[in-house]
Amino acid sequence: MIFCVGSCGAHNSVLLHKSIEARLQAAVSAVLPDANTASVLVRPCPDPKFGDYQTNALMALAKERKLNPRQLATDVLAKLDVSEWCEPVEIAGAGFLNFRLKTAAVANTLESAAKGEHLFFEKVAQPRTVVIDFSSPNVAKPMHVGHIRSTILGDSLARVLRLLGHRVITDNHIGDWGTQFGKLLVGWKTQLNRAALQADPIAEMERLYKAINAAGEADPAVLERARQELVKLQQGDEENLGIWREMIQLSEVQFTTIYNRLGIKFDYALGESFYNPFLKGVVQELRDKGIARESEGAIAVFSDGSLPPKQDPFLKQEDGEWKPNPALIQKSDGAANYATTDLATLAYRLETWHPAEIVYVTDGRQLLHFQQIFAIFKRWHPEAQTKLAHVWFGSILGEDGKPFKTRSGETVRLADLLDEAEERALKVVSEKNPELPEAQRREIARAVGLGAIKYADLVPNRQSDYIFSWDKMLALHGNTAPYLQYAYARISSIFRKGGVESGAAANTGGHVPVILAAPQETTLARHLLNFDFVLNAMADEYRPNFLCNYLYELAGHFAGFYENCPVLKAEPAERASRLVLCALTALVLKQGLEILGIETLEQM
Ligand code: ARG
Questions:
Q1: Average pLDDT, stretch 130-139?
Q2: CATH, range 445-595
């Protein structure tokens, strides 16, 4: 017989909450052999007064079985031994278990992190294939601030899922097909200014579109011409296809410039036009399966009555009555539309990548569209296990609370916004560090300016609108990117002053005992331990703001520690231990900011 000493669970993890969870699950199985323990999890205690971790899973198990929850908690507790990591476990409230970590166990975890064994998180046990559809700007139109949220949110979600070990496929669903090309083609053929096109292709294409749009309002003949040009394009007219390709190519150059600036890459950029060959088949299949039907010459999907009206995306309430709200998948002129393309896209992704999950990042105005697409999909592929998620977000508002516009009332272009961010950041940086050479100040300003824009976008709850404020996002105090970048740079400067490599302090190879004596030291250390929870919560709920807030708190705990606990002037053992705390904080800050797509600087 082999005896296990120490961490002997089914799951032997370097992370304390995972080890505790494994023991807890084993104890639950011992008491309730038939229980599915997958949902028996520990979470950080909402109030540190009660401990570090908590589980509420026993109450749910007791409820299912009509057991007394406190009795179940008592029985599980009798089978649970976590004494090498925790103080005696407490039953609280209706049947919670509260776990308080022993300081020595916390210190141990920091020591293993310092040896490079982990950075307070673990790859998931079951990686999934996740397709993320984000950014998706439209050809011949400037990328505007509305696209910034999709681009930045989507990129951070891709980063966190990858870090956790999932197989992530990013796909930029570029709007390179649609009715706008009718007007664009008329404009191109009648008033293209080649010189202007060369100087600023998007601006010229935008001008053409606006000009024809205005002309069409005054003269229906212009609209008719646009319609004809569109039909020609759809029928494969060589001249129109050539112009269309040139418009795509010119737009892509601009998109790529912006993505490079933002440090964003896509695995695929399969635009809407990629799916054109499949559209007829999709419509036919949906008709054959009785999911879509003809209605006034068009083809549409109607409610099948399977959902309560309130949740049925094919119904809308009008004058107190539920009226049909069908999803159009073929217009009466035979043309497919945005919905048809999205259905074809779904089918293609399913066949090509067999994803467990597809995530769409767009603004909230597309809520109904995706509700309908997802509902159609369910009827079309009832067997599919793929989870479809619409990760939607609110608008960016100007300081006047109205949609964010330039002073002259134009839509703000993303490229201009990034320029201005860097310029404004340069002022901030120059005030703080007038002595640095200009090239270095510019480099810092680039990282700070872009970081500020990204962070301002990620820190609010994504579903609420937020007010775009340069002063707020560039502030060195408060929950901003510059504040976090500054916190990181400050730690780097401790290492410079002390003549120690931060890498050397963190990755000690050997063994530096971590001493957690001051309350600020334990608070900081315990916060580091929560990184894993935060990354998983961000990935599960598609909410980067969880990570923003965690990092902000981390920087705050570090500031508290640094004010109260001298580092470089401490006695040798304490100094070494505190340098480890500094280095681990810096590593987590850097890793966290990296997930948000934000660079860190050694000096600011
Ligand atoms: N191009 C669209 C827009 O700018 C967004 C596309 C989102 N993705 C999708 N699969 N529909 O509004």
A1: 96
A2: 1.10.730.10
